[in-house]
């Protein structure tokens, strides 16, 4: 491969593989090392090489950026700064109910809400254990009703009346955080 240059197979050492991986993204480095390791295993079976230098090379470690902790003050600031009513209602719902954004909140429908003894309840989980009805904080109801679109069953619809997609949710959350951090 071009990552290893014009090295002969007999001259290939683990440090060459490690040096090549440094120039690649973590994902590509993992794939590169895996493919080279598989190829060199075949070469060992065919008795072309004596050892698999890719297996001896240290894998590249992923060092993710530390995630910031969302404090109640920051969360409240995000909700207060949100100028899009649907997302304001969604952030509030997620904060109060502890629901999963894309699998529980985004597909939530008015038909899945039940009013019993003056309280709203919903079934909002993708797991069977979470299918038990959960009460909705009564303070949320006016926020939810404010974004209701007549003829649309979704509680948190897009302007077109469709479900908010996962990418849109992530982008909206990042934008909301950026407004607060700015």
Separate helix tally: 8
Task: State the helical fraction.
Answer: 40-55%
Largest sheet: 3 strands, antiparallel
| Strand percentage | 5-15%
Quaternary status of these chains? single chain
Number of strands: 3
Quote the distance from N terminus to C terminus.
Answer: 45 Å
Query: Which residues sit in consecutive blocks of at least 5 with pLDDT less than 50?
Result: none
Main β-sheet, spatial strand arrangement: 1-2-3
Structural class, from secondary structure content?
mainly alpha
The helix/strand order is HHHHHHEEEHH
Shape: elongated
- Average pLDDT, to the nearest integer? 86
Taking all Cα atoms into account, the compactness measure Rg is 26 Å
Explain this structure:
It is a single chain. It contains eight helices and three strands. The model has no long low-confidence stretch (mean pLDDT 86). The chain starts with 13 loop residues before the first helix and ends with a helix. It has a three-stranded antiparallel β-sheet, with no helix packed on it. It has helices spanning 14-22, 26-45, 53-56, 72-81, 85-97, 101-105, 141-146, 166-181; strands at residues 113-116, 119-122, 134-135. With 182 residues, the chain is mainly alpha-helical. The longest helix has 20 residues, at 26-45. It is 46% helix and 5% strand.
Topology record:
Layout: H1 14-22, H2 26-45, H3 53-56, H4 72-81, H5 85-97, H6 101-105, E1 113-116, E2 119-122, E3 134-135, H7 141-146, H8 166-181
Antiparallel strand pairs: 1-2, 2-3
